[in-house]
């Protein structure tokens, strides 16, 4: 058992080094990608030739299948919960994925509210979603003026709920209701308002300011063209066309959500992260990182034997822990965690990794071979889910196609270390 505990500590020691470097130094993207890809390759190799083959020999294919599916499902489910609590900051890939999903969710909520606005329906879905982040929700009380005749025109409005009167002098020219827009000419020129708009009921509206629309023009002139055509025509919909629009509304909304992209500058991304981070973020990052490492430490413990060290798997875990701790420490700093606390948290991770290895060894020594094989399969599924959802996507994002060679070298290195323990080759 002591051997298992020490091996678990050894494999997690690289976390401390990664955390220390994450606090005081950030390596280049290419170097981080190469380390991450190499670690992914060695983990895949060790998992295939040490864990999976061993579990298959002990229990056959069915427990292996069940265990891998359970392990993968548990990892994804728990990781999603931890990410919602702030743990998404622990890795660049999980951070960008969480921001993407959050942007999609926000876009879907806004689209639900503005889908009945004719102007938006006249825009292609990909262009509609580009406007959504620039819309500002505003609540207007009955009797409140949105603007007065002669004011500078610097924005236009979409009515989501309520009604407003358009007045010129003391005369009511028309009444605007849900789904209509006003003030649109401010997007095309800077002339003063030609009328006064006063809320005749409580209103919910979305505002698009001229300065934001100018940003849209720089990114996609086609948005301005489509919006200009929709506003200029002011066509009255027939009953048939209105019905057709309603039938196609769900499709339009889904296409708009599918078109959402994360294209933020570093400062914009940091601002968005600060708005999402909760007070529990540092702890969530720690828990998320520990969840990534529990399956690895458990496998180390289950395969540890007196006088024998599974060097292939141990080395793979050691290498993979380094970039993960590096990325997580950077995320903790972004969440405002102090340097001393970061190091203490990682010291706790190293200790807990040793304890997980110890528990894995106890499990292997006191249960049947079938239970051990199933536990190995569950851990293997969790490790594969971790590789597929975090390490490998992040390595590719940082290093591009060059990470393929690092992954190959990692895989072959793991195989070379495992080869002496594999059955001898017979025949050609």
UniProtKB/TrEMBL annotation:
GO terms for cellular component: cytosol. Residues 119-234 form the Cyclic nucleotide-binding domain. The chain crosses the membrane at residues 6-25, 30-49, 61-82, 342-364, 370-391, 403-422. SUPFAM superfamilies: cAMP-binding domain-like. Gene3D superfamilies: Jelly Rolls (2.60.120.10). Keywords: Membrane, Transmembrane, Transmembrane helix. GO terms for molecular function: DNA-binding transcription factor activity. InterPro entries: cNMP-bd_CS, cNMP-bd_dom, cNMP-bd_dom_sf, Env_Response_Regulators, RmlC-like_jellyroll. This is Cyclic nucleotide-binding domain-containing protein. It comes from Tumidithrix elongata BACA0141. The lineage of its organism: Bacteria, Bacillati, Cyanobacteriota, Cyanophyceae, Pseudanabaenales.
